[in-house]
Structure to design on (296 residues):
């Protein structure tokens, strides 16, 4: 008997003996039931012995088949273990992923997620590109985009990975000097630091827009944060800017009952026919890792 030549028959035999079913063995081997039957028949012809008693309902090993299975069981276990090890290594993600992200959220939240992923899968290379424009993932050769807010209709695959909350805050010194506003309307009496002249609030379960004013405007969140930390006024910024300063007492969060609901953060990728196995693994891992970061 040429073992290598008939190895596929031995695999089929082990599966049928273990599962006591031609159909289940065929499904696990991803072949047809007829093909499994053919392999078993070839093995029985080689051995000159019947290995199974078959009926419409039951598949049982014959006495010879049982002895043969027991004799081979250690070898089957070793072979299956070796196959599993090889397969698990070959399934490890590898290759390159290109991701577009913007702003401080990418720096403070997405970067740590990527670092955790690379520790787990060192064979993957990731290029994290920071840019404000909305890119065409396929045209610009990106595997993923991180985007904030409510999405427009799109052919892209979207996965929610986090949420973002806005905080209204100022330093204790500023609030001691100018007072703490008790309602959004009272902000009109304060120096408000912002890019936009309108801030959104939730009043009586409805979204309202309030026109505010101040002596400093910027399209850069970090400079608005620095202005607030310099006792200049009240800022309206996402948590990734201000939460560390709120936690250490440098800033005080105000009007929390009026702040808008949390905004979703999305991981976007091209259609499934364009996504690689490594990219799919990244999407699942980042979704999982992000949950732990959100809880911190």
């Amino acid at each position: 008997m040429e073992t290598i030549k008939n190895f596929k028959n031995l695999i089929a035999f082990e599966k049928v003996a273990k599962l006591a079913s031609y159909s289940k063995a065929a499904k696990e081997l991803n072949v047809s039931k007829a093909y499994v039957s053919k392999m078993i028949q070839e093995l029985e012809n080689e051995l000159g012995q019947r290995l199974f008693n078959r009926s419409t309902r039951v598949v049982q090993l014959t006495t010879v088949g049982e002895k043969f299975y027991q004799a081979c069981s250690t070898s089957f276990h070793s072979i299956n273990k070796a196959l599993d090890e090889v397969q698990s290594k070959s399934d490890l993600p590898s290759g390159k992923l290109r991701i577009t992200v913007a702003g401080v959220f990418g720096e403070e939240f997405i970067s740590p997620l990527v670092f955790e992923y690379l520790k787990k899968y060192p064979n993957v290379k990731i290029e994290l590109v920071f840019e404000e424009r909305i890119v065409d993932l396929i045209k610009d050769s990106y595997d993923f985009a991180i985007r904030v807010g409510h999405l427009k209709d799109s052919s892209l695959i979207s996965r929610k990975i986090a949420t973002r909350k806005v905080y209204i805050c100022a330093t204790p010194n500023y609030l001691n000097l100018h007072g703490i506003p008790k309602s959004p309307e009272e902000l009109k009496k304060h120096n408000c630091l912002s890019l936009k002249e309108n801030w959104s609030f939730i009043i009586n379960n409805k979204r309202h827009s309030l026109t505010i004013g101040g002596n400093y405007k910027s399209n850069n969140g970090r400079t608005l944060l620095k202005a607030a930390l310099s006792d200049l006024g009240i800022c309206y910024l996402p948590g990734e800017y201000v939460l560390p300063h709120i936690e250490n007492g440098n800033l005080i969060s105000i009007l929390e009952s009026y702040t808008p609901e949390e905004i979703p953060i999305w991981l976007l990728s091209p259609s499934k026919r364009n996504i690689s196995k490594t990219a799919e693994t990244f999407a699942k891992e980042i979704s999982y890792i992000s949950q732990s970061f959100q809880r911190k």
